[in-house]
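# nightly structure sweep
# worker-07 picked up a monomer target from the shared queue
# config: single-sequence mode, recycle default, output format = structure tokens
# input follows
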Amino acid sequence: MRLPTYAAAMAMVVTFSLPAATATATPWCGAESLSVKTGEPISPGQQPYIHFGLIFTNISGQTCVMQGYPGVDLVGPDYPPFGTTFSLPRGSRDGGAPQPGEVQPVVLAPGEQAQSLIGFLPKYGPNGEEPAWKPATIIVTPPDSTTQLQTAWLPYDFSLLREGDGTMPGAIVRPLMPYS
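# output follows
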């Protein structure tokens, strides 16, 4: 029967047509090879959101790769009925829902950085920014990792509007990209 011969030949073609890089793939950047800090907050244009970078630095001695969205939890005082932790939903680079193709690998040599932008709505009332929920800590889970990192909330007196669901959430995390 010729089918097993054909199947064996096809398996050899597939095996030999894979790129050589597959055998020596760059490892993922796990939490043990990263440090994290916040960048300076900005308010671009007329947007109500304030943005800042969650900046990851490769502190290991080898090149690694990151891709996707970090898990981001803001932790602060109890805020009934929401509690002490606000898990940020994912959003696209333009603020909407995640878009196909915008999640790209970011290769980090030792000392290089990647960032994920965080956008949040400050809480405003009739007299300007109201006292509202102010996180103390940002807990971050790098993509493809279960170990968490943490950094302090912004050093300024920013509080945020705490909304979880809807078309305009109170805060979002955007996909990783190179930091420059």
